[in-house]
């Protein structure tokens, strides 16, 4: 029986967009920094080494940034929830302005 491929879960559109933006920027940055000779179909050894180093450095930096983000995310969420609860409490505490007066009788009405 043929071996079935494992399905990779689909990313939500905003995560896919963010991933592609980071990937494209990294590719462009490393290409501009490392590739200087477009006369050959294959990379030269120095270009290949430069690209490996550049991509590795950017991926490592991205992992460190994401780790810091994940570490600080609970406190960010907690502050947002507290701010939301405070604004909801303030909104429920201030009475809505209602018109409590009955409309005046029209002159000549019965």
TrEMBL record:
Entry protein name: Mitochondrial import inner membrane translocase subunit
Organism whose genome encodes this protein: Casuarius casuarius
Main location class: mitochondrion
Assembly notes: Heterohexamer.
InterPro entries: Mito_inner_translocase_sub, Tim10-like, Tim10-like_dom_sf
Function as written in the Swiss-Prot or TrEMBL entry: Mitochondrial intermembrane chaperone that participates in the import and insertion of some multi-pass transmembrane proteins into the mitochondrial inner membrane. Also required for the transfer of beta-barrel precursors from the TOM complex to the sorting and assembly machinery (SAM complex) of the outer membrane. Acts as a chaperone-like protein that protects the hydrophobic precursors from aggregation and guide them through the mitochondrial intermembrane space.
One GO CC term, this protein: mitochondrial inner membrane
Residue numbers spanned by region Disordered: 90-110
GO-annotated biological processes: protein transport
């Amino acid at each position: 029986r043929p071996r079935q491929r494992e399905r990779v879960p689909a990313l939500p559109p905003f995560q896919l967009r963010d991933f592609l933006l980071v990937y494209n920027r990294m590719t462009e940055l490393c290409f501009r920094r490392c590739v200087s000779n477009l006369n050959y179909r294959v990379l030269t050894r120095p270009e290949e080494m430069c690209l490996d180093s550049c991509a590795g450095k950017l991926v490592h930096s991205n992992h460190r940034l994401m780790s810091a983000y994940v570490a600080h995310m609970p406190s960010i969420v907690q502050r947002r929830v507290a701010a939301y609860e405070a604004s909801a409490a303030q909104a429920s505490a201030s009475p809505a302005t209602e018109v409590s007066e009955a409309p005046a009788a029209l002159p000549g009405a019965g």
